[in-house]
Amino acid sequence: MRILFVAPPLPKANTTAQPLGFGYLASVLRQEGFSDVGILDACSLRMSLDQTAQYIKEYEPDVLGLTTMTVTVKNVLRLAAAARAQSPRIRIAVGGVHATVCPEEVIADPNVDVVVRNEGEHSFLDVVRRWDSGSSLEGLPGTSIKVDGQIVHHEQGPRILNLDDLPFPARDLMPMDIYKAGLSFPPHIRKRTMLYSARGCPHDCAFCSTAAVWGGHRCVMRSASSVLDEIEEVVDRFGVLGFEFADELTTLRKDRLTEFCNGIHERHLERIRWVCSSTVKRMDYDTAKMMKDAGCSMVLIGVESGSPEILKTLNKRITVDEIVNAFEVTRRAGLRRCACFMIGAPGETPETVQQSIDLARRIQPDRVSLNIVTPYPGTAFYERYVDKSAELDWDEAFSSDPDKPEEATIFYNISGLPDEEIQHLWAKFRRAVELSPRNLLNIRMNINRLTNARNLQHLWHNLTGALRILLDRD
Question: Model pTM?
């Protein structure tokens, strides 16, 4: 049985995020004897939809696996239709975030044979086994199918509680040379790979779909030794020295983090650099210093807002004082910090955005990530504020357009402010924080921007977009 996994192109922006979930699925399939497996990262390769469809046609898979984020669901269904037209007997399975939180929408498409929800390693293996033996998918946990024209959602299967049992992702099936390190790494680290050390998050932020994706608020963690084994394999096999943890909260357990940091020294892995996410509640001086000494080049911290009222609306369960303290101790430890902000939450006002600007200036992060609140399916905001009868064009939902870096993408405004005001406040924040003299004169970040630009056109768009934001003060 010939199996092909495809990460579809994004409708507007491009990313090199690596379809690590497919890497796990491919490894499990190989381990169980299904050796004819391929992965096409059409997104990172910046392939068009037509090029991706042509690749599928020439590959001639018996089974096509597609992954979908909300912003790619339309492209996924377009590829499914193209694949079905090319080969009527092909079997098509869809998984990923959007298929998990909106299975009814995806399985209703006539070209989709099965939706695999939540974790897919065990359930997708069972799907392939049944297709290989000619059996029906009826009764298979963790899947949604059609039976006699009726949609059937089977019960959710059990979560994988021992992640150490899973084989490492099949990175040999991915174009490892194209995954640039990005702005969170020092300039000498040119390539990076994504890495999962845990799945899930115990928190319930109103803008996040993590609990819906993983099937609950439990965080399941790999052992530090397993993560270190995977890092050693990547370094030895691919020569990659940059590692970006895709976990929601890598720092959740200090004992595991300590064992991981100590293991880097014990295994002589001091050349590597790694990036992870944390909450302010997990950042103290000793932790930050330990991470810095073990090669952490940046920690991404979810600040979101400088307004206590907006923090409550977002259900962040943190205070401004805790944010200030976390950035102070990480600064003293020499650990570089990225502050993640968002604007456009319900109840946002010019005054609350100014509070965020004031906080950003106060904590002086090394990098800033600014997003517009978007109520994606699977989040509390989606359930509370989105008109479910509305026809939403999710192609337009991506948070940025690479051809218009001077504009924010406002897809579904739940703030109560006009779109024009949100756009104005977004530009004001960027002028005051991201495009401040301190950041514009940061030599290290400027080198990273040059080395990580996709091409000269991309670099030119970013430069001219920044200039327009700086000059437009209306």
Answer: 0.91
